[in-house]
Structure formats: C-alpha cells, structure tokens
Amino acid sequence: MAGTGKAHMRPEGDRVLVVEDLTVEFNLGKNKVVKAVSGVSFDLVRGETLAIVGESGCGKSTLGKAVLQLPKPTSGSVNFLSKELTTMSKSELRDMRPAMQMIFQDPVSSLDPRQPVSAVLAEPLQVWNKGSEVEIDQKIDELLTAVNLDPAVVRDRRSYEFSGGQCQRISIARALALDPTMIICDEPVSALDVSVQAQILNLLQDMKDRYGLTLVFISHDLAVVKTISTRVMVMYLGKVCEVATPDELYTNTKHHYTKALVGSVPIPDPDRPITGNLIQGEPPSPMSPPSGCRFRTRCPQASEKCAQEEPELREVSLGHFVACHHPID
Amino acid sequence: MSDTAVAPTTESPAVAIKKVRKKRPIGFYIAASWIGLVLFLGLFGWILPTPKWDASFFDSLGVGPFSKGHILGTTQDGYDEFAGLVNGARISIFVSFIAVTVGGGIGSFIGITSAYFRGTYDKIVVTFFNILLSIPNLVLSLALLSVLAYSDENHPSSTNRRVVVLIISLIVVIIPILGRIGRGATLQWSSREFVLASKSMGTKDFMIIRKHVLPNVAPALLAIGFLAIGSVIIVEGSLAILGIGVPGGASWGSMLANGRGNLEFSPWEVYCPALCIAFTVISCNWFGDYVRTALDQREAKI
Q: Interior CA angle at B63 toward B60 and B69, to 5°?
C-alpha cells in the first residue's frame, strides 16, 4: 500500500490533466528534506470529479498547489490541456492560468479584507482585459447571481461582513470568472457548518454542470467525497494507496488504510457500539518515511515484504486499483 | 443551492467609522493639537511677529521669559528663545520628514519585496538589516557624519553639506527599522490565500504587492513611521549634544546643546527645547498608535 505506479492511468480517455511521478520536497536546510508528495501519478478525464482524500499532512493540498505550479514541484510532469507546465517559462505559464483555478480551504483568508466584493471579482477580469468597465460590471453581477448572492446587496461589502459560506460563494464566483476548464477545490467545505457544507457542495455540482468544469476535490471527509466525486484517490504520507469509484471504495474496500478511513466516518447513532478497527498512532514523519510501503508501521497486516518492497498500484477489479501486498479480500 | 444570500446585518462602514470617531481618546486630541502646532509653527512661523532667530540682541542678554519683546526670554548670547524654537520646528519637520519618508520608502520597498519573493534576495536583505541594526543608531550616524562631513579649521564643511549628510545618516538609521516591519508584515500577509488566489489567476507580482500586500501592510508601516519621526528627532538632538547636529544652533537639539552650559543662569534655554522635543516625540508615538488602531481592519471569523 501507499505505493507508486501508473496502472490507474487512462491514456485512451479525453484527458484534461495528466500528472506523472509528481514529487514535492521542501528543503528545511541542514540536510532535512520534507517529502510532502512522492511520485504521485493521476489523470483527470474531462467532466469528472476526482476526489483526493487522506488525513491531515498527507500531501493533498501540496499536491493540488503543485499541479498549479504554486510552487513548482521538485520533479515529475504536469501535463494540462496537452501542454507541459513544469518546463514552461513564467509568461507561458501565466497564459495557462485562466484555465486552471483554485478554491481554498479558509473562506475568510481567501478574500482580501480591504477589498469590496466587486473589486475581488473584477481583479481576474481586469488582469486579462475581459471587456470594458461596464462589461466587467455586468459580468460581476452575473457571477454573483450564479452563486446565489444578490449583487445589489453584496457588491460593496467586504469579506468581514460575510459568513464563511458566503465568502466561499464569492471565492467560487472568482474562480469561475475566467471560464476555467479545471478547478482545484482545496477542502472547500471543511471550515463550514454542516448545513452550509451541503449548500456549497450543491453549488459546486451545479456550477460543474452549467460550465462543464472538471474538478479536483481535495478533502479529508469521506462522507463529503461520496456525494460529489466520480473517482476517489486515497493518499497516505505523500503516496497513492487506492483509486476507485466512491461506491466501490466504500463497499469493497481493499486497502487497510482506506478501511480505517471509512471506519472513522462518524455515524450519528448513539446506540451503535464503537468497533475496534481504528488504526493506532500517528503517521510517521515525512522527513524520514518508512522503507517499502509507507503505511506498514501502522498496518495490521504488515509483513517482511512490506518493509523491503514498495507496492505498486494494480487493478483488483474493473476501475479499482490498490497499492498493497496484502489487500483485504 | 436553494438559499439566497441573506443581507448581512452588520452596519454600513460609514456608521462604523462614526462610532470609532466618538471613541477617540483624549490623548489623541492632545497629540494631534501639539503636532498641528509644531507643523503650523514650522511651516508658517515666519508670519509671526517674532524677533529674528539668528540675530543677537545685545541690549537683552539672558533675559527671562515673559520679558518685553522676548516672550520666552533670550539666551546668554542674546538670541530670542521663541524665535529659535519656531525655527527649530521648521528644521525638525524638514529633517525628520525627509529622513522618515525617504528612509521609510526605501526600507519598506526592500522589506516588502524581500518577504514577497523570498530566496537569496531575502537572505541578503535580512543580513543587511541585521548588520545595520546591530550598530547603535547614534554610533552609526556619528560614524557617517564624521566621515562624510569631516571638517576642521582649515577645511570647514558648509552648513548645507552637514545637513545633507545628517539626513543621509538618519535615512540609513530608518531603513532597517521600517524594512523589518515591512518584511514581517508582508511575511504574514503574503502567505494568505487571497495572495495565492491572485497568483493562480495570473496577476503579476508587483500588481499583487500594490493591490493586496501594500494596503494590508500600510497600517503597521504608518504607525512605526510616526514612532520613527520621534526617534529621528531624538537622534538629531543627541548628535547636536555631541556637537555634530544641525550647525549654528538652528535645531532644537543644537539649542539644547548650546544652552546646556548656561543651565544655572538661564534654565529656560534648556527647558524650552527639551520640552519641545519631549512633547513632539510623545505626540508622534500617541498619534502613530491611534493611526494603527483606526486603520486596523476587522476580519470575519468563522
């Protein structure tokens, strides 16, 4: 588990994004290197929603940002709309930016507290010279209406006057302003109330259908992922564990880590006994990850082989890939 | 998806600002009036019917305050005290304003860009700031002044040259102070997600600095800028005491320096400029504090 490999790639599909062997390392000096993402590959077919799940610190957000070259990954290739992003010059990369947008986790921090909403939404349009002032004004109203905010009410207000959910709507409107092909949503609902989460998820789904978007949805919440994604990729300590459709992943879990993740989703029933398949301990430090399979230190099935040999992703059933030497039957 | 935005119930910005205005502390009014008075005297003091500041009145040497024609008295050499203070205000404003705006401008630019771009440039800048900060202000200005404006009896340096060198040395003192503030605040703000969002939509770096970083960093810079005006006045005064301030007894510091030998005969020669310096420094600190509070942007909490 927690391995490399490209068995899950779909070269025959209409792929928007192809990421191969992406590695992101942060140099802390004194020979300390944090391996946040190690050799991750995945692809994104037009119109799908790929969910990337894993616990905090497993490199999900770093992966999302590395795809957008913020900052550039240490090695590996990111091919977006048949163009290689990692080797591009700064100005070439800038020309690609409108097609790939991002929505961030913290809705409040995503908006400049000194700018009214109209300025927030005008920025991308002005940067790319999308029409005259009047046209930009109209576009802002359109965007705000699309995310269910009343332009007349919100236009001149600043971020601190809004709730988290409203801020996130504005962030979504900003991401939509440049008619992107792909939006990377970095835990867009994890800072919100459960009731608001549902609204934002529905909004994202709506926008996806309306604008023909392809989404990468980063989350640690499997319940959220289930409702929105078409494919789920489970990550652990910078590596891919398992790739499958959400239904397959929940009903036919193959990876021990995924099983623990699924088991940790709370079920709102006070009478339900707590089952004992929770994994123990903390994830190892990404500065010195374990040899072989990275999950072996916490895995109930770990064997000698897991320490020596890194498992590769392999197909266990149609469209279901797992990187584990001893998958669950 | 079914809900529509509920109008936020918070009051409009105009009302909020009014409320803040009502809560201004008394210290703000005192500080603002003193700064206003100094500014007025410095800029328009020449209108007042005061005696000439650089003329010696031989018929009234060392007369006390409230004597005829000399409202704050004269020095032992017959110079009018009030006229001297008015002229000193002009010099103080000129020297500190130039030093703080130029030094602050250069310092903030270096600090903000170094924190924004990071990398080797940042490391060089931090080292540079640390070296400058490790030298006490006074020693640094002293060294610069004595090297750049060296003079002895055979090679007297001109007054203008001394003033220019004084301002340059004060600028060098200010650069790392405001540079570090700018750098620190930028580190905090440029890691925020709205900056990342701007980058991801293709906004150019200097545009991001101008539109997102600078407006958020400005309150801290303004507050420290006012503090810096205070410390520039103090440094100038200290240099004058050491005999290398603005020459000719023109600044408050030089008046203090010239008068300190006459403390027992005409204490007003020392008290008047000393009080002016003290009030101005305190007022700048209070005012800077107020500016920071007033510009502090509220942020929503989830």
A: 65
